[in-house]
Structure formats: C-alpha cells, structure tokens
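Continuing the series of single-chain predictions for the mutant panel. This is the parent chain; the variants come on the following pages.
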Amino acid sequence: MVLLLDDLIVDEKMRGENIASQLLERVEIYAQENSISTLKLDSGMQRIKAHSFYEKHDNAFQSLLK
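Parent structure:
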C-alpha cells in the first residue's frame, strides 16, 4: 500500500514551532498502523526548503520500509 503526501505546508507565521515535524510523525504512525510500506512525497522542484526538511527526517521514511 502507498501513501502519497502531496505538500506538507505550515503557515509562515507558525514555522519554527515544530509543527511540520509533529505532522510528519503522525503520518509515520498512521502509515505503520495501516500497514503502509511506501510513502511518496510530492513537494515540487522549487521548494528547496521542503526538500531539506524531508532529508532531515529521512529516518521517518526509512522506518516505513522496515
């Protein structure tokens, strides 16, 4: 089963509050609870900061595959 995460966006005024990390943690829990082994991300080529965020949280994505 595949879960598609199509843009994870936090309001600019709320960035730096760990909200995106908490949301991503919830996605990971949801995936594990629902036997989802693949997570596909679509953040767009232009969203460099998003790419950096996802790279920092690589362990969350790797754990879905175990």
